[in-house]
Amino acid sequence: MAEQINPWSSTPKMDINRLIADFGIEPFAPVKEKIADQPVFIRRDIVAGHRGYDAVADAIVQKKPFHVLTGFMPSGHPHFGHLMVMKEVVWHIQQGGKGFISMADREAHAVRGLSWDACDRYAREYMECLYALGFSGEIYSQRRNNALKDLAFEAATKVNFSELSAIYGFGPETELAHAVSVSMQVADILYPQLVAGVAPTVVPVGIDQDPHIRLTRDITNALRMFLVEDRGTHISIRVKNAPEGALDAVAKRFCGAKKYEGHIDLPAGHTADEVDAVVREVERAFGGFGFLLPSATYHSFLQGLQGGKMSSSVPDSLVWFDDPDKDVKKKIMGALTGGRQTLEEQKKLGGEPEKCSIYQLNRFHMQDDDKELAGMCRACKAGELMCGTCKKETLERVRNFLREFREKRDEVAHMVEW
Question: Where does the signal sequence lie (predicted)?
């Protein structure tokens, strides 16, 4: 039986490789070969899986339009656990994508019980961090975005509570606002295509957010007016939810089209992608959405400094971007490592960097040079690099990053309008 993923759990215990297999997520390794200049998170396989990313990779290579969106629930201060997805969004924008960020204040209010003022306060901090990293595009509030709320209502017409229960484990005790926040998540993912044109859209997330992606892809299909099928010998266009006159309009767009009750067959010479693009135009002309299936990339979690996932409920597991230096030092120097019990064992047996929160912090963020990282890993395993030395070196990298990051945040603070 497949393990259920809870997007709201602060301490998920997941085997990412098993989840990829259980939920039909595609391994990222094959598609990454399409990308010539790979960033750290792709080179080092931190992004481990995807749904439908080939369309986005092709758009990057062919310099065609695409969108990138992700969301942040403004329920606490931003920290290193948020940095990976921020970097992924900014990198996609640098590759030509149009950027969107949802500040999921409705979700924070419904799920975490935060006041609207608190949501706004935290949202400003996230925005400042995003701008400091180079974000450009639209950042919006769920509760203030009327177009988004209308889209969420449309999405909600295509899902029932039984489906939500199966996907999220909702039960009789689930508050209605929590369930409604799910339709807002779906609308967030589809929003870029609503306002900036139908195009491939990637949503970089941690793998715990996959339920939202799966549901959105199902609803995207449910919102379509037509289904385009490649039958090998011909292309068939079948009516799903099309209004009167839409089928005739589709038939007029293709020479040799044979119209039947409820469907159209096209002769050989057409491709499914070509036909689908035309059908989407007709759908939009008749008041439909014609959305493309959204894509997603899934990155593995940055290990918390005390093991497990970084969690705001365990302050020593993470470094907040605004932590004072004494707290940063305490957390880094007190972090759980992959070292042995004694210095003698460490020299004899070597360390285990794959279990070490300090090594993983360098692998994710603090060491951009692949050769330096490989050298650190080799020295650890050989018993040449002691945990105390490694922590001190990493502490200096973290201090330098935070100092520079704070300077950049000060420089962009004027851009935050909320």
Answer: none
How many Cα atoms occupy the beta-carbon half-sphere of 291 within 13 Å?
27
Burial 254-265 (b: 16+ CB within 10 A, else e): beebeeeeebbb
Q: Which amino acid does the sequence have at 6?
A: N
Q: How far apart are CA 310 and CA 365, in angstroms?
A: 14
Torsion of the alpha carbons at 201, 205, 209 and 214, rounded to the nearest 10: 30
> Could you read off the pLDDT of 351-389 as tens digits, one per residue?
999 999 999 999 999 999 999 999 999 999 999 999 999
> Torsions phi, psi of 371, nearest 5?
-70, -40
Strand partners, 266: 235
Strands 67-72 and 201-206, bridge-based pairing: parallel
At 13 the pLDDT is: 52
Q: Which residues contact 400 (CB under 8 A, 6 or more apart)?
A: none
**What does DSSP say about strands 138-141 and 98-103: parallel, antiparallel, or unpaired?**
parallel
From residue 388, how far is each of 35, 217, 344, 392, 395 by CA, in Å? 38, 47, 14, 6, 10
Closest CA to 139 of 153, 155, 125, 118: 125
What pLDDT shows up at residue 319? 97
Asked if 351 and 383 touch (Cβ cutoff 8 Å), the reply is yes
* Euclidean distance between CA atoms 111 and 114, whole angstroms: 8
Answer yes or no: is pLDDT of 19 > 50. Answer: yes
CB 215 within 8 A of CB 186: yes
Please name the residues in contact with 336: beta carbons below 8 A apart, sequence gap of 6 or more: 305, 306, 307, 356, 357
- Number of helices and strands (H, E) in the chain? 18, 11
**pLDDT tens string 236-263:** 999 998 999 999 999 999 999 999 999 9
What distance in Å separates the CA atoms of residue 366 and residue 8, rounded to the nearest whole number? 27
**Euclidean distance between the first and final Cα of the chain, in Å?**
45
